[in-house]
Amino acid sequence: MMSAVRCINLCKTYRQGDQDIKALDHLSVEIEKGEFVCLMSPSGGGKTTLLNAIGGLDIPDSGEVWIADERIDQMSKGQLADLRLANIGFVFQAYNLIPVLTAQENVEFVMQVQGVPAAQRREKSFAILDEVGLKGLESRRPAEMSGGQQQRVAVARAIVSRPELVLADEPTANLDSKTSAELMELFTELNEHHNTTFVIATHDQRVQAYARRLVRMLDGRIVDDIKQNAA
Amino acid sequence: MHMFFVLSRLAWRYLWRNHRRTIVMLSAIAVGTWAMIFMTALTRGMVDQMIVDGISVIPGHVQIHDPDYLDDPSVYNRVALSDADLTARFHDAGFAAWASRVRVPAVVTSERESRGITLLGIDPQAERSFSFVDYDAVDGRFLEGADDNGVVLGAKLADTLETRVGKRVVLMSQDPDNEIADRGFRVVGLFHAEMEITEESYAFIGKRTAQDMLRIGDSVTEVVFVGDDYRDVEPLYTAVMARVDDSVQVSRWTEVDTYLGTMMGMMDGFMLIWVIVIFLALSFGLVNTLVMAVFERIREIGLMLALGMKPISVLGQIIIESMMLLAVGLLIGDLLAWATIKPLEGGIDISVVAKGMEMFGASSVLYPNLSVDDVILANVVVMILGFLASLSPAWRASRYEPVEAITKV
Question: Do A101 and B306 touch (CB under 8 A)?
């Protein structure tokens, strides 16, 4: 099967005060297309750093990062931006919506930057907002929505242009259990129906139950890599 | 092009995210723009009036002289072409307003006082359309022809000489042989002018009377031509040049009165400096507004970069935001300036400071002149400088690392 993500011998060290913190310590991992992977670690274990390296948001000190058949750790900022725009959907922990845009405009944002025609954007954004259960809230701004609704808008934005890879960093951290379950059901459905690869960094036990592969990290290294039957 | 619309919409929304700050900045830009244009209109009006008044006294946008006349404006340096020859060359040549005249330094003496003046021997009918004297507003009467034997003095000069209409004065100058040329004249009229200095400096007599008194036959010392626009005299200059030879000198008014010519050039420079000075004051507010606008949305900038927006687009977004702020502020300022200047175009009476204004050659009524060119200059300069001022905060915003920016609290 084709690799969606391949990390080879990644190292990343941060300086915190007088101390060097190894966020990634010679880490290698390969994720195949269509996998649903959970990265788990205690806080500071390196999962967000790994997610950022995979998404081209952070450049490792050494090692290689491949997305499909493209090596990205040597790309320029502009190339990385193009890669993220075309291939990767992001869901961040703290919703991260653009506050001056409505829900529908937030969802359209990536497509707008991609240059998708207006009619097509509108159709897709309404459809995806319906899919994530936000029908009727399209014209609300983030400040007028609950945390769960905002996170669903962020998810809708991440998946609306059907990226091959979705990276989610603690997507359920600010959600109640019911909304978390709905969100994970949505991810599972997308994974199964569209063969979208999901890499989710979390320490939420409820999320781990949905994954078919659990990658446990500690101090920047992988300590356990298990395949399981999803919930 | 689609990115421009994306960025414009974001910029516009962000502009109104903090209404209060935007309104304060818009007010500052609008008032600054108003001040630029209003002050420029007042100054332009004053300088235009000075130039128009100055040219009306010269008079003429283009003049013909003997090559040495401007250095030594005496009867000795007369135009080499006779009056008859000049008439033959210019009478039917399509010049709307022209006249030949005698202009020499002279002394006027009443029974009580003497004053040095400029004596003008004119054909009143030829100069009626462009003379600075309103013939109908003269106390007494104006000259009736080139053979008129009377003299018309400025009202102020008459006061100084303690003379009046009906009394006699003596005019004295030199003939071409450096002999005294003098003659008694009856004062037939007193003219009024915008400035007292003009009333004090000139006396009018008939052209042929002057030629007889100065014993110069049908010679003149200058020929004046008036065109449609004092700012554009080149067509008139070229037309006059084409009809004379090297024996005479053809001059534009800017060369005849270099002070006025310099004033016109200086005015444009002054406008630019004035606009830049006001903008510099505004730019602190503008840069501060943009820096704050960037600072309060570092996370959102990081998010946009993370989602695939390129750094150049972030830079563009901040610059567009700045340009929108300036454009709206300029529009309000322009309208404000128009609304305040238009009602004043009939003139502002500044007679309380008339004496002081006269020192600069300005009259006691100020006519603001709202020039489209000045408005365009102010707007273009502000937009260009605003663009430059916004580069620094925009550049900083585009250099954020997405992963750092997105975690900023």
Answer: no
- SS3 for B97? strand
Q: Which domain holds residue B115?
A: 60-256
Q: Does A173 touch chain B (CB under 8 A)?
A: no
The span from the CA of A40 to the CA of A50, in Å, is 11
Please give the radius of gyration of chain A, using alpha carbons only, rounded to the nearest integer: 17
**ipTM of the prediction:** 0.88
Q: How far apart are CA A37 and CA A40, in angstroms?
A: 10
Residue B231 region, left (φ>0) first, then alpha (ψ -120 to 50), else beta?
A: alpha
Both tokens of residue B75?
Answer: 């009867």
Measured between alpha carbons, how far is B146 from B205 in angstroms, rounded to an integer?
A: 8
Planar angle of CA B68, B74, B80, nearest 5 degrees: 55
Do B231 and B292 lie in a common domain? no
Q: Are B96 and B69 in contact (CB under 8 A)?
A: no
**Separation between Cα atoms, residue B114 and residue B169, nearest integer Å:** 9
Whether residues B284 and B251 share a domain: the answer is no
- The range of the structural domain enclosing residue A203 comes to 3-94+162-227
Contacts of A84 in chain B (CB under 8 A): 306-308
Picking from B240, B256, B272, the residue at the C-terminal end of a domain is B256
pLDDT of residue A180: 84
pTM: 0.72
Residue B103 CB contacts under 8 Å (≥ 6 apart), including other chains: B73, B118, B119, B120, B121, B221, B222
Q: How many helices (H) and strands (E) in chain A?
A: 7, 10
Cα torsion angle, B204, B206, B212, B218, sign = positive
Which chain A residue's Cα is nearest to B9? A101
The number of folded domains in chain B is: 2
CB atoms within 10 A of CB A195: 12
Average of per-residue pLDDT values in chain B: 87
Gap from A211 CA to chain B (nearest CA, Å)? 25
Residue A113, token pair as written in the block = 């930057």
CB contact under 8 A, B13 and A101: yes
Residue from B6, B9, B17, B310 to probe the interface with A (highest A Cβ count within 10 Å) = B310
CB A208 within 8 A of CB A188: no
Task: Quick: pLDDT tens for B177-218.
Answer: 989 999 999 999 999 987 788 899 999 999 999 999 999 999
For residue A123, being part of any structural domain is answered with no
Q: Which residues of A touch B313 (CB under 8 A)?
A: 113
Per-residue pLDDT of A23-54, as tens digits, reads 899 999 999 999 999 999 888 888 899 999 99
CATH number assigned to the domain comprising residue A80: 3.40.50.300
Q: pLDDT tens digits, residue range B86-135?
A: 888 888 777 878 999 999 999 999 999 999 999 999 999 998 888 888 88
Residues B48 and B106 reside in one and the same domain? no
B225-235 burial, b if ≥16 CB within 10 A, otherwise e? Answer: bbbeebeebee
